[in-house]
């Protein structure tokens, strides 16, 4: 139930940015989507798949736990076919792979992912360094990229697992919230007596 590139396309593939700067990731839908777009981040370092923000077609945003509203924002077009995630005040903790996602018929469709790397100083590539990259090396890179993109559905194993865990955590948060409210009511009732 998890496919990429069927309903949406995501650009760019990679972003190398300097800390304290800002970037944007574009998510384009093949057709208008009535509910909105979700954004997630996979952190290789912390091994977590994290819900960042959901933006509905009216532009109303719902943020994940401990996600800063000043750091993350989503801008959509009036046609509801294009959404961009804006991340400002970049830090090393923002490193990861970002995915836009839409839900349809109980399935979660993910973009191809954008890998963000935040560094303190951007590397300067001289012309001699660029020229020294052999043609054979470039052919090998092209071949490996082509091999990794076979078929419209990438065999991503961890995405369904991580999403299931995320959904389980969200339902646990909901249950914990309801229990907390129930406990408050009980406490008020006891103290009224």
UniProtKB/TrEMBL annotation:
It is found in: Membrane. It is a single-pass type I membrane protein. The lineage of its organism: Eukaryota, Metazoa, Chordata, Craniata, Vertebrata. The chain crosses the membrane at residues 156-176. It comes from the Eukaryota. Keywords: Adaptive immunity, Disulfide bond, Glycoprotein, Immunity, Immunoglobulin domain, Membrane, Signal, Transmembrane, Transmembrane helix. GO terms for cellular component: cell surface; membrane. One of its GO terms (biological process) is adaptive immune response. Residues 4-117 form the Ig-like domain. It comes from Serilophus lunatus. One of its GO terms (molecular function) is MHC class I protein binding. This is CD8B protein.
């Amino acid at each position: 139930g998890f496919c990429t590139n069927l309903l949406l396309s995501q650009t760019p593939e990679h972003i190398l940015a300097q800390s304290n700067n800002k970037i944007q990731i574009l998510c384009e839908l093949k057709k208008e989507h009535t509910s909105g777009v979700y954004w997630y981040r996979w952190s290789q370092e912390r091994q977590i798949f994290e819900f960042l923000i959901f933006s509905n077609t009216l532009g109303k945003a719902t943020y994940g736990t401990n996600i800063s509203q000043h750091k993350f924002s989503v801008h959509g077009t009036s046609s509801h076919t294009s959404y961009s995630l804006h991340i400002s005040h970049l830090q090393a903790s923002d490193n990861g792979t970002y995915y836009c996602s839409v839900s349809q018929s109980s399935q979660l469709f993910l973009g191809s992912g954008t890998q963000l790397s935040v560094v303190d100083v951007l590397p300067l590539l001289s012309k001699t360094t660029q020229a020294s990259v052999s043609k054979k090396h470039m052919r090998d890179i092209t071949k490996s990229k082509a091999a990794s993109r076979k078929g419209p559905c990438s065999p991503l194993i961890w995405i369904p697992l991580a999403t299931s865990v995320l959904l389980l955590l969200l339902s646990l948060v909901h249950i914990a919230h309801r229990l907390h409210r129930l406990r408050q009511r009980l406490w008020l009732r006891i103290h009224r007596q």
